[in-house]
Amino acid sequence: MLKALYVSALCVAACAVSAEPVTFAIDPGHTVVTFEALHLGTSTQRGRLVAKEGSVVLDRAAKTGKADITLDMNSISTASTGLTGFLRGERAFNVAANPTARLVVDSMTFDGDKVASIAGTLTLNGKSQPMTLRAKRFNCYENAQLKREVCGGDFEGTLLRSQYGLGFLAQVTPDEIPLLVQVEGVRQQ
Q: Signal peptide: which range, if any (predicted)?
């Protein structure tokens, strides 16, 4: 009996060490980017973009990960229909020519078992720049409805507007645009 328990314990330990990376498919209903832009020093304009598709690969044992998330630029919205139309137009994001934006994450840092930050490249408006986002929170749980694990969190960072061809807006809004990325992914079988 004692020998069987010992063999079982060794098997569990070996399985934990040899854990494989796990792929999560992005849930577009729970993956949104919100941004803020100070308008002429008076009020804050807020907007959002919705994810179109993507995946996250986590190897929790190795404390590594990567992600590839595509955002639908046609989903950009603000409280102002005029501002939304302007942002979609040729003078800003030119959504007709650039219908998607893409965040490719090459590395993740962990604090214990939780993702603490992600780093990679954001391609927006036809321009690619490095992007680092810090985790405000990160969690995984067993979704009772889906009967699968879901992982996600809120990540924050700053976009420099001028690096994405929007330098002409310097008289209207600061260069630093705060971002909050809400992301959830469903574990794939």
A: 1-19
